[in-house]
Amino acid sequence: MQKINRIALSALVGLALGISQAHAGAKPDEIARLSDDLTPMGSTRAGNAEGTIPAWTGGITEPPADYVPGTHHVDPFPEDKPLFRIDASNYMDYADQLGVGQKAMFERYPESYYMDVYPTRRSASFPQRSLEMTIENGKTASLTDNGEGVVDAAEGFPFPFPENAYELMWNHKLKPKGTGGIRYNNQVAPTANGDYSFVRIREELLGLYYKEGVTIEEIDNILLYFFQEVESPARLAGSILLVHETLDQTAQQRQAWIYNPGQRRVRRAPNVAYDNPGTASDGLRTNDMTDMFNGAMDRFDWKVVGKKEMFVPYNTYKAHQADVTPDDLVRPGHLNPEYMRYELHRVWVIDATLKDGMRHINSRRTFYLDEDSYQIVLIDHYDNRDQLWRFSEGHGINFYDMPTYWTTLEAHYDLQSGRYVAQGFDNQDPAQTFNQEMSPSQYTPQALRTRGRR
């Protein structure tokens, strides 16, 4: 069993300061470290002392030989076998490497929930241009004074030397995702006994921040355009959501519109933010849980707890394959663990606590961010009695078309009701695309009217 590997106390003092250091950011005198002891993303390049976490050597830079571009991503590690299984009978033996929500899942579903732990593969990789721009950002980028905006950054991770929770969360939010892409982010929200309806959701994303040569000043505070259309079931089909996601949401809130196919009308949707319910989620997912976390951070106080080794979902290619169906994956209470993969990785741990006078259904959240990609891989959600309420897992893969580590499935478990919502079921749909040519003119309220249909 591996013990917690916390970062040095002296570093923690600075990291825990949070917003008081928010404007600092740039570290031009440390840039050489990004080709020495740190990866270009800012994670620790070396493995751990026990050898259970290997050194990062570039991640997946070439797809498997049998991968056909444009198709679902074949498993690059088909010969890997589980090293061991964690279940309700032995999870306390691994308690130091498990999150609160993970331990609660073993207690809630002792007969069915388990984690197969595989060899650790540090597969995360990103385009060379993104890595080069991350290095440049390390010289210049900083946060606005309130932590809700980024200045003097472009294209890559803004903070390869993160000093506080805001910088870490911005690394998650600005992770390279390509300039324009289309995906099916299909969703299920099973009942407690496993019955479900399949909601087919097509999404488009145009990311201005990721366009080569574009600066934050030039994008006029518009980070990305997001278009979402429900294609089925019939009772929901034709509903469309359009979002203009702003970079600094305290300077300008995100703008959103919805198209109602019954009324054939476009109207403003001011509540597509914070803890308002996500599309067709039965109230099991809030808007700010999309991509594990998105949007403004101003309702919470943010603090870095530390960095530690944990068993987290990683390289979940088995669930991503084209021959896997929702019936294979959906089980009462949780996704089918047969298709899930867990590995030992170093993660950043961040606590977000609701500010006095602010409203949110969660009084506190704990986020766990993979050190190599800043992808949020786990979240513990607490209710207003400060009791654990929900638990989220982000099951990621390294994509090949545009190398990036991102979720292929997200699952959000309500530990009190025994229900969950999961999204990302694209196995029977065209594979996700990146870097498609798109224009902001496609994502105006006027364009939404022409794209809407009954």
List the helices and strands and how they pair.
Blueprint (H helix, E strand, L loop, with lengths): L8 H7 L68 E3 L13 H9 L6 E3 L10 H13 L1 E2 L6 E2 L13 H9 L6 E5 L2 E2 L9 E10 L14 E11 L7 E7 L8 E6 L4 E4 L31 E14 L12 H4 E2 L2 E2 L6 E13 L9 E7 L5 E7 L5 E12 L4 E11 L4 E5 L21 H7 L3
Antiparallel strand pairs: 1-2, 3-4, 5-7, 6-7, 6-20, 7-8, 8-9, 9-10, 10-11, 12-15, 13-14, 15-16, 16-17, 17-18, 18-19, 19-20
Write a structural description.
- There is one protein chain.
- With 454 residues, the chain is mostly beta strands.
- It has one domain (9-451): outer membrane lipoprotein receptor (LolB), chain A (Clam), CATH 2.50.20.
- It is 11% helix and 28% strand.
- The chain is built from 6 helices and 20 strands.
- Strands 5, 6, 7, 8, 9, 10, 11, 12, 15, 16, 17, 18, 19 and 20 form a 14-stranded antiparallel sheet that branches. A two-stranded antiparallel ribbon has the order 1-2.
- A hairpin with a 6-residue loop joins strand 3 (142-143) and strand 4.
- Residues 1-22 have low confidence and may be disordered.
Q: What's this, in brief?
A:
The strands form four sheets. Strands 5, 6, 7, 8, 9, 10, 11, 12, 15, 16, 17, 18, 19 and 20 form a 14-stranded antiparallel beta sheet that branches.
